[in-house]
């Protein structure tokens, strides 16, 4: 009997270190981005302020009704376009201010979702997107994130609600951009105050990879400035940075919109000497085919929109769908033009029958030039949608 007990103790002595080593290799079930102010569980820093960063104020220890614990994160976005971008956002990074130039980040292999709680101060704040990863992918950095996954738009309620980003099947071997939010002045013309709490990665074996969803119709490019159904951002100003001098864009214009409270007003004049200009509505902002973020719009047979000129007779050389080229090129393109605008609202249609609309990140585009508009052109757009 004593011999059996001694042999059992010897076996335990040999097995225990092996079991301990195996346990240390196991991935954690949860990996926190933000739990509470100064929590030792926090692994990322909200240091990557983007776009109109001057429009953002952060209180990372707000005690105003946190979801759990003693604090939550309060963001105040004024929407005043302090840097002239029309959008703003914040990345949680590791280490702080790491845009892919230095080694950092974490191997989150095995995590299948990111969950977080959010609420608005009033309840109608619209966040254009929440996402994981994406830092350094384009332009290619020394240490780029291994994936980029997003969700949105989201219209927040005035009570805490849990949201989830599906990460199953994604390459999470290197994630420096642990979490991110982006919104626009168009979506929040009066600004937005919102709260975030309990942001964490979760290893849930029940979460399965999502396929590319075929989008239902109608599918909006622009419905109204505050619509959570707007799916593209007018970020692709062409032909280059000089276009910013040539164009004035107002996505919350209230001068006789066709429908709803607002429409888009665009004023073009050749100041830079480029002699032509245009704007692409993209997903995500500034995506020229470098990011896998297109929509499957196979159900669409046409894109319709309403337009009018300030005087009438303004000539737009082309209105277009798709056509963005790059590593993740649009699957097809279609357009109409030239178009002479009327002074009254008129509906136009781009025929998509027979086109491959399975992957579109360039949702809408217009282009014109100074030769056909020697005095410039001011025009309005509204109700841009796939049907």
Explain what you see:
The strands form six sheets. Strands 1, 3, 4, 6, 11 and 13 form a six-stranded antiparallel β-sheet that branches. The protein is mainly beta and 387 residues long. The chain contains two helices and 26 strands. The model is unreliable at 1-25 (pLDDT under 50).
Main attributes of the structure:
mainly beta; disordered N terminus; 2 domains; 387 residues; 6-stranded antiparallel β-sheet
* Average pLDDT for all residues: 91
Rg computed from alpha carbons, rounded to a whole number of angstroms: 25 Å
Number of helices: 2
Q: Please provide the ordered H/E string of secondary-structure elements.
A: HEEEEEEEEEEEEEEEHEEEEEEEEEEE
Count all strands and give the number: 26
CATH-defined fold name of the largest domain: Jelly Rolls
CATH superfamily of the largest domain: Galactose-binding domain-like
Structural class: mainly beta
Residue windows where pLDDT falls under 50 for at least 5 positions: 1-25
CATH 2nd-level architecture of the largest domain: Sandwich
Please report the distance between the alpha carbons of the first and last residues.
82 Å
CATH class term of the largest domain: Mainly Beta
Helix content: under 10%
Shape type: globular
Largest sheet: 6 strands, antiparallel
How many independent structural domains?
Answer: 2
- Percentage of residues in DSSP E strands: 35-45%
């Amino acid at each position: 009997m004593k011999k059996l007990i001694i042999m059992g103790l010897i076996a335990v002595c040999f097995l225990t270190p092996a079991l301990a080593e195996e346990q240390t290799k196991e991935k954690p079930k949860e990996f926190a981005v933000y739990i509470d102010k100064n929590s030792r569980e926090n692994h990322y820093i909200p240091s990557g302020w983007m776009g109109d960063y001057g429009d953002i104020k952060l209180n990372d220890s707000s005690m105003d009704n946190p979801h759990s614990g003693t604090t939550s994160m309060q963001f105040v976005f004024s929407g005043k376009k302090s840097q002239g971008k029309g959008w703003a956002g914040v990345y949680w990074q590791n280490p702080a201010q790491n845009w892919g130039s230095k080694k950092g980040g974490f191997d989150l292999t095995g995590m299948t979702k990111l969950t977080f709680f959010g609420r608005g101060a009033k309840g109608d704040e619209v966040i254009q997107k929440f996402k994981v990863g994406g830092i350094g992918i384009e332009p290619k950095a020394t240490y780029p994130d291994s994936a980029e996954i997003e969700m949105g738009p989201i219209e927040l309620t005035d009570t805490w609600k849990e949201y989830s980003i599906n990460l199953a099947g994604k390459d999470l071997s290197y994630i420096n951009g642990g979490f991110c939010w982006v919104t626009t002045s168009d979506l929040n013309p009066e600004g937005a105050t919102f709260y975030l709490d309990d942001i964490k990665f979760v290893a849930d074996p029940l979460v399965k990879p999502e396929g590319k969803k075929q989008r239902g119709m109608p599918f909006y490019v622009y419905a109204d400035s505050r619509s959570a159904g707007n799916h593209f951002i007018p970020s692709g100003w062409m032909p280059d940075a000089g276009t910013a001098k040539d164009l004035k864009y107002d996505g919350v214009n209230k001068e006789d919109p066709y429908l709803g409270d607002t429409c888009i007003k665009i004023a073009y004049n050749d100041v830079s000497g480029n002699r032509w200009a245009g704007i692409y509505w993209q997903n995500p902002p500034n995506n020229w085919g470098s990011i896998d973020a297109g929509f499957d719009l196979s159900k669409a047979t046409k894109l319709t929109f309403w337009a009018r000129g300030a005087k009438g007779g303004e000539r737009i050389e082309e209105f277009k769908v798709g056509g963005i080229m790059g590593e993740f090129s649009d699957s097809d393109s279609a357009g109409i033009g030239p178009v002479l605008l009327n002074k009254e609202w008129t509906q136009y249609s781009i025929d998509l029958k027979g086109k491959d609309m399975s992957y579109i990140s360039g949702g809408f585009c217009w282009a014109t030039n100074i030769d056909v508009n020697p005095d410039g052109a001011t025009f309005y757009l509204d109700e841009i949608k796939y049907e």
